[in-house]
Design brief:
By secondary structure, the protein is of the alpha/beta class. Helices cover 11% and strands 14% of the residues. The strands form two sheets. The chain has a two-stranded parallel ribbon. Strands 2-4 form a two-stranded parallel ribbon. The longest helix is centred in the last third of the chain and has 8 residues. It is globular.
Length: 70
């Protein structure tokens, strides 16, 4: 899934139970990822985000099972 540029947030539970989701490409405009946005998306293995956004991405994902850079 590619989230288009201009999107500011991914809401709570937005991709919950998307069991076949493997890759998520995030825009540089993203400022917030809601709790449980990717909960039970068991095949999700790869987040692609713009260069220089690693620290911001890790802070947004803190406390989730995806809290390490991919």
């Amino acid at each position: 899934i590619v989230i288009p540029e201009g999107v500011l947030s991914i809401g709570v539970g937005s991709f919950e139970f998307c069991r076949n989701l493997k890759t998520m490409k995030l825009p540089s405009s993203l400022k917030e990822i809601g709790l449980g946005a990717f909960e039970h998306s068991d095949k999700l293995q790869n987040f692609i985000y713009p260069e220089g956004m690693e620290e911001q991405f890790n802070m947004m994902m803190e406390g989730s099972k995806y809290d390490l850079p991919f």
